[in-house]
Amino acid sequence: MAEANLNKFTNVVDEGAVQKMLNSRLNLKKYVLENSRQGDIQNVIDTIDKFAWTQQWLMNIGDTKGKILDQAIQTKKPKTVLELGTFLGYSGLRIITQLSPDTVFLSVEADAQSAEIARSIFEHAGVTDRIQVINEYTDKVIPRLSKDFNIDSFDLIFIDHYKDVYLRDLKLLEENGLIKSGTVIVADNVICPGAPDYLNYVRSNSNYINTFHETTLEYRNDIVDGVEISVRK
């Protein structure tokens, strides 16, 4: 899943740079463990941002778009959160800083190496007990979420995994009753590399109120991207 997801960026980021990023995941782990303060979540976040701006581009939501996600969480104050696409744990850390300690937070990541690195970074940041990382494909996990985790529905869902399955997984969440009135859905990279079928669905669906936030691709100032926030009526 991770390699397929990364390949979606080759239209806008040099293919060699994308492969280098894939190969540098362990370098990020080493950099974070050596250069950030253990137990200091914000310092770990800042260290990942520094790595991505100065050492190697990363495909997590990043510092600029991350503020859009922060604001959505602050506004909603969710008690149940689902993240599709843990990657290396960056967005999970940003989300955790906005949550109350009693919030249920689940994050799904298909790639085993990325999940392992994320867990290591969560442990270093001191938040292992606040987030459940599920190493499995989303289409396998979503139908089991209610039963396996005693979840009725989610207050906030962050979608940032393989762009071609944004729409499939949104529909799976709907079909399994995990989206209720008031559920906030934040979708990253809807312009670059893009999720046009997802955008068409939520924007033409009378069940959602949508807001588009135009910005730039993570850790780039020269490529347009955007975050779509959809609220279930």
UniProtKB/TrEMBL annotation:
Enzyme Commission (EC) number: 2.1.1.6
GO MF terms held by the record: catechol O-methyltransferase activity
SUPFAM superfamilies: S-adenosyl-L-methionine-dependent methyltransferases
Enzyme kind, highest EC tier: transferase
UniProt keyword Transferase present: yes
Keywords annotated in UniProt: Catecholamine metabolism, Methyltransferase, Neurotransmitter degradation, S-adenosyl-L-methionine, Transferase
InterPro entries: SAM-dependent_MTases_sf (IPR029063), SAM_O-MeTrfase (IPR002935)
GO biological process, one term: methylation
Keyword Ion transport (UniProt): no
Family: Belongs to the class I-like SAM-binding methyltransferase superfamily. Cation-dependent O-methyltransferase family.
The name this protein goes by in its record: catechol O-methyltransferase
